[in-house]
Amino acid sequence: MCWIELAFVSPDASPHLQALGAALQAGLQRxxxxxxxxxxxxxxxxxxxxxxxxxxxxxxxxxxxDGKQPLDVTFIPDGNxxxxxxxxxxxxxxxxIEASGIGFLVETFGPFTLRFRLTPDGDAISxxxxxxxxxxxxxxxxxxxxISAREWLAAEKxxxxxxxxxxxxxxxxxxxxxxxxxxxxxxxx
Length: 189
Description:
The protein is mainly beta. It has a single domain, classed as Beta Barrel (Lipocalin). Helix content is 12%, strand content 51%. It has three helices and eleven strands. The protein has helices spanning 15-20, 26-32, 51-59, and strands at residues 38-48, 67-78, 81-88, 92-99, 104-109, 112-121, 124-134, 137-138, 146-153, 159-167, 171-181. A hairpin with a 5-residue loop joins strand 9 (146-153) and strand 10. The longest helix has 9 residues, at 51-59.
């Protein structure tokens, strides 16, 4: 069991800070601290699954190509959540993330809602899918996506992420890994 210690966190804080507070590693606190609109840039490596996986991604509006490509993420405060607008080389993925109690985030995109448990893991955070819904209806666990997600600070003081999605009936759908660079990460600690 993981205990999360929260100091007072402003209701204007980012969803990550609301969910994890002091349990969030210091560098990740700085990354997620912004309460204003901002864009960060970096690189991503994208791998998509077979033909059916690519068709599904296109139906969801995720027109991603495989390989290394630029990645820009714009964070837009939105009430008690944040819109994440991810722009990969030729594709785009927009979702809204909000805290849902201590240790939990909810991500919504289109008709889908995903509830994740965030677990501090040394200098990283692991995301574990707890519940998936479509149009407000729970997706049975045997049909729910298997999502492996993790974020950390890379040695070169970049925010790093790794996300992989597998669907039970379809198999491997998508993986992206990458780094985002922030000016304040290049300042001395």
